[in-house]
């Protein structure tokens, strides 16, 4: 075959390469689902209460309260509130944009055999985790700020990330990507605003 149609069709080697990439992505998806199911098997009443509380600490309302408390505290508080707000808004905007690009459905919508979520999902898309991105962005932006503030946030961020997988709102890969996105945003905020 020759002509414009032949030029538009992928070459045989390109089709094989695409097939290898798709097979790799399918394997990655299976591993991600397997890890999610393993984490969900750890379910206990106490862990569920604790991890629901951690997830709610990562909700926007919680960050607004912390931001307002810092802003009204005097000293370095207003500057720390600015870092927190800028990091949170930046991470939220970037993670939401990436979710709309990737369109990865939440675990509850994926009909995984043997899976049930323990929490309602705030939106339809899963990749990357917005809660995780915001938590890590705030932790990175506040690192080195005040006695223990950055350390406290750095300790809280992985807990929020773990809660999202345990409760079934996200896959492990979603929270890993959220942590990377958030850390990058928080460091950028620290560099440009701090």
Structure description:
The protein has a single domain, classed as Phosphatidic acid phosphatase type 2/haloperoxidase (Vanadium-containing Chloroperoxidase, domain 1, Up-down Bundle), CATH 1.20.144. With 194 residues, it is mostly helical. Mean pLDDT is 85; it is low at 1-9. The protein has helices at residues 4-8, 12-40, 45-57, 60-71, 77-102, 130-142, 149-166, 172-192. The protein contains eight helices and no strands.
Question: Features of this protein?
Answer:
Vanadium-containing Chloroperoxidase, domain 1; 8 helices; 0% strand; 194 residues; 71% helix; mainly alpha
Derived from helix and strand composition plus strand pairing, the structural class reads: mainly alpha
> How many β-strands, per DSSP?
0
Number of domain modules = 1
CATH architecture label:
Up-down Bundle
CATH topology: Vanadium-containing Chloroperoxidase, domain 1
Order of helices and strands: HHHHHHHH
Q: Uncertain spans, ≥5 residues at pLDDT below 50?
A: 1-9
**Oligomeric nature of the chains:** single chain
> CATH first level: which class?
Mainly Alpha
β-strand amount: under 5%
Mean pLDDT: 85
Principal-axes shape call: globular
Cα radius of gyration in angstroms? 20 Å
CATH 4th-level superfamily: Phosphatidic acid phosphatase type 2/haloperoxidase
Main sheet characteristics:
none
């Amino acid at each position: 075959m020759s002509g414009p149609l032949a030029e538009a069709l992928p070459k045989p080697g390109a089709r094989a390469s695409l097939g290898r990439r798709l097979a790799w992505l399918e394997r990655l998806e299976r591993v991600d689902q397997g890890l999610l199911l393993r984490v969900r098997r750890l379910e206990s009443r106490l862990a569920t209460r604790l991890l629901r509380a951690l997830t709610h600490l990562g909700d926007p309302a919680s960050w607004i309260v912390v931001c307002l408390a810092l802003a009204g505290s005097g000293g370095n508080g207003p500057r720390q509130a600015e870092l927190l707000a800028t990091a949170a808004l930046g991470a939220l905007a970037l993670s939401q944009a990436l979710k709309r690009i990737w369109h990865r459905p939440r675990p509850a919508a994926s009909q995984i055999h043997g899976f049930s979520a323990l929490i309602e999902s705030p939106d339809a898309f899963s990749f990357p985790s917005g809660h995780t991105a915001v938590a890590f962005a705030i932790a990175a932006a506040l690192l080195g700020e005040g006695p223990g503030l950055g350390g406290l946030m750095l300790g809280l961020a992985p807990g929020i990330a773990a809660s999202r997988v345990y409760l079934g709102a996200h896959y492990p890969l979603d929270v890993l990507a959220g942590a990377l996105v958030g850390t990058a945003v928080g460091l950028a905020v620290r560099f440009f605003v701090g």
